[in-house]
Design goal:
This protein is of the alpha/beta class. The protein contains four helices and 40 strands. The relative contact order is 0.05.
Length: 345
């Protein structure tokens, strides 16, 4: 589909600077912009690209002030990145939606499938499982017995959802994710480890998105709970009985040990690791590769392993770079002190 700058501006409640009849039918990165595409500028580090991009339209923030001549038509909006997301969402909704149930899919006789669902080739739906209306289940997905999935949820290929788990409305679970595998529970017994049955489940509330190959373990008892609006990147491990608060986001390779409680609106950088049975307060920000071994208060900003306040971490990092010079200076001082001692004798 093709849209003019004025049509896009009207949709985004923005204003056009340049040719309101400029047309686009595709998206592009600003450094790779081509005629007929729309791009955006949100990060000042990329400003130099706007003066040479060949894109036809560029979304910019209202306070953007160019320092050189610009060829593309601009659309000024309150937030260029958010506006781009709105356009991408609009383009995604315009795609042809898959529907119908493939003849090779296995659906247990006791399962309940809502209206307007798509269930792809070789998908498996277990006994007494309920799938809400408008769900999309891609090929080779496995959904076990007594699972409940809300409306308009998308399950991508090779996702595995174990028995008894509950998935909310408008969730997205990407390829290879595993929801409800056994938690890592073993009791030492005569030099070996006896498996502790994991009889709980996993609950994903509404609008949760789970990245590819992420694993969320079922609870020993009760539920491992991922609250509304949480977004988990690829390759994350969530252990048994963990609770993650609303609208918390985690980047790739984060690992959360058992029974840890994460507050709402937290942000985790990649490869952060948290020990078990601790609490992270609301609105906390955890830097990449941080190691968390104790409770974290609300509104904390920490980094390092073990993690410390981020300002102290930055200060320490500067000192670490200087350690070789400081070591040499210390040795020199020691030699001078020894010489002084000898001279006094």
């Amino acid at each position: 589909m093709e849209f003019t700058a004025q049509q896009i501006a009207d949709f985004l409640k923005g204003s056009v600077v340049g040719d309101p009849t400029a047309k686009v039918n595709n998206f592009s990165k600003i450094e790779e912009g081509m005629p007929g595409s729309i791009t955006f500028l949100a990060n000042p580090k990329y400003e130099h690209f706007i003066y040479k991009t060949k894109a036809s339209i560029v979304l910019v923030n209202e306070d953007f002030t160019p320092t050189s001549e610009i060829t593309p038509t601009l659309i000024r909006v309150s937030n260029a990145y958010t506006s781009l997301a709105m356009l991408l969402d609009l383009a995604e909704q315009s795609k042809t939606r898959k529907n119908g149930i493939d003849s090779s899919a296995f659906i247990a006789q006791t399962a309940l499938i809502g209206e307007d669902c798509y269930i792809g080739t070789f998908a498996y739906i277990g006994e007494k499982t309920e799938i809400g209306k408008g769900c999309i289940i891609y090929p080779h997905a496995y959904i076990g017995d007594q699972v409940r999935i809300g409306e308009n949820t998308t399950i991508y290929p090779h996702v595995t959802i174990y028995d008894g788990c509950i998935i909310g409305n408008n969730c997205i679970i990407h390829a290879g994710a595993v929801v409800g595998a056994d938690g890592f529970g073993f009791a030492p017994e005569n030099g070996t480890y006896k498996k502790i049955p994991q009889v709980g489940n996993v609950i994903l509330e509404d609008e949760v998105e789970i990245g590819a190959n992420t694993t969320i373990d079922r609870a020993v008892m009760g539920s491992t709970t991922i609250h509304k609006g949480v977004k988990l990147d690829n390759l994350i491990q969530i252990a048994h009985n963990v609770e993650i608060g609303e609208n918390t986001v985690m980047a790739s390779q984060v690992g959360i040990a058992g029974s840890t409680k994460i507050g709402a609106n937290c942000m985790f950088g990649g490869q952060a690791g948290l020990g078990g049975h601790i609490t992270v307060g609301n609105n906390s920000q955890i830097g990449a590769q941080s190691g968390i071994i104790s409770n974290i208060k609300e509104n904390s900003q920490i980094m390092g392993s073990p993690a410390i306040p981020i300002k102290k971490f930055m200060q320490s990092s500067i000192i670490i770079k200087k350690l070789p010079e400081m070591y040499q200076s210390l040795n020199q001082l020691k030699k001078e002190v020894e010489e002084l001692k000898k001279n006094k004798q």
